[in-house]
Amino acid sequence: MKVVLVYDRVNKIGGAERVLEVFHEMFPDAPLYTAVYNKVTAPWADSFDVRTTFLQHIPFAKTNHEYLPWLAPLAFETLDFSEFDLVISITSEYAKGIITKPGTTHVCYCLTPTRYLWSGYGEYFKDKVLQELARPVVWYLKTWDRVAGQRPDRYVAISKTIQARVKKYYGRDSDVIYPPVTLNPKQVPDTKYKIPDTKYYLLVSRLVPYKRIDIAIEAANKLGLSLKIVGSGRESAKLKAMAGPTIEFLGNLTDGQVKSYYQNCTALIMPSEEDFGLAVLEAQSFGKPVIAFKGGGGLETIIEGKTGVFFFPQKAEALMKILQNFDPSEFSPKDCQEQAAKFGKEKFKKEFRLMIKKVMEEKL
């Protein structure tokens, strides 16, 4: 069986990219098709056979893809998958919109229906002027996205949260197969990487608006708490400007370095409404509790009072109330690790293979 992977763009590192690496382990000979590929910012893809669309030849597309949203649908529709038996699209945007022939089966592993068109529209287009200027493009993309949402033969959602969105926005049923935890606490972390401050809270995330990093920064500023932030993104400069002296931005780190920070933190803070939230499980795999916003994927991965606590509403004041009374000794590292173990890599591989077998048999 000839398999191919399709992903929106290969230009960053995050939870979705860790899942792609697992798919690569499952199907090492499968090429990876994507809109654009930036080797500098995505070194994890060196081992993949990456194949790009015509967008790769537009000079700024690799780093500023958001300025060309109307071209992405066309880019994916022009790809030819007739030589493959199975296409697996891993997507939160346009990769689901590929066009396949009757002999090819398309399984979509949906990270979320396109956020800025649907569930996150109000957040992305708060500015009324921008909203008006973008209206024609948004109308076109929403129309296309509804049509593209009908193209996969089978949907698999990363969480029950995303399963509900797939039903709401595309009218499609889906299975749920949770992404796997891939950071292994048993492997030795980067011991050469020294962490002088051993009493700190940790935040691991891309620095983009919907992640609501500002909530954690405001809370840490007001309480004078040490907060270390791992990750990068377009909000980096803005967030650094509002951060006080107890907050440190670490940028993108190696797996070994991230492990060191997980190992030594008091707890992980997750202020966003996550689609799933791999960092939440990574922290628990190191025996650390999580302080998370009460919504989204966190409700499926955290056992309240046992492996973490929730704050609500999504405001700094609510987070501060939790932080003021937070005692990490109330949480058992063993409980956290046992919860993370439920989301293992081998379990993911087994569930996905069984699902593929079933889908392929149904097509016969």
Shape: globular
Terminal CA distance = 14 Å
Q: Identify the CATH class of the largest domain.
A: Alpha Beta
In the CATH hierarchy, the architecture of the largest domain is 3-Layer(aba) Sandwich
Computed structural class? alpha/beta
Order of helices and strands: EHEEHEEHHEHEEHEHEHEHEHEHHH
Q: Total domains, how many?
A: 2
- The neighbouring-strand order within the major sheet is 3-2-1-4-5-6-7
Helix content: 25-40%
CATH topology of the largest domain: Rossmann fold
Largest sheet: 7 strands, parallel
Low-confidence stretches: none
Report mean pLDDT, rounded to a whole number.
92
How much strand?
5-15%
Write out key terms for the chains shown.
single chain, 364 residues, alpha/beta, Rossmann fold, 2 domains, seven-stranded parallel beta sheet, six-stranded parallel beta sheet
Would you kindly provide a written description of the structure presented here, covering whatever features stand out?
- Helices cover 36% and strands 15% of the residues.
- It contains 13 helices and 13 strands.
- The two termini are 14 Å apart.
- The chain has helices at 15-26, 72-77, 121-124, 128-148, 160-170, 213-223, 236-242, 255-264, 278-285, 298-301, 316-324, 333-341, 345-363; strands spanning 3-7, 32-34, 50-52, 86-91, 105-110, 154-157, 175-176, 201-204, 227-230, 247-251, 267-270, 290-293, 308-311.
- It is globular, with a radius of gyration of 20 Å.
- The chain has 2 domains: 3-180 and 345-363, Rossmann fold (3-Layer(aba) Sandwich); 201-341, Rossmann fold.
- The strands form 2 sheets. A 7-stranded parallel beta sheet has the order 3-2-1-4-5-6-7.
- Helix 6 packs across helix 11 and helix 9 (278-285) crosses helix 12 (333-341).
- By secondary structure, it is of the alpha/beta class.
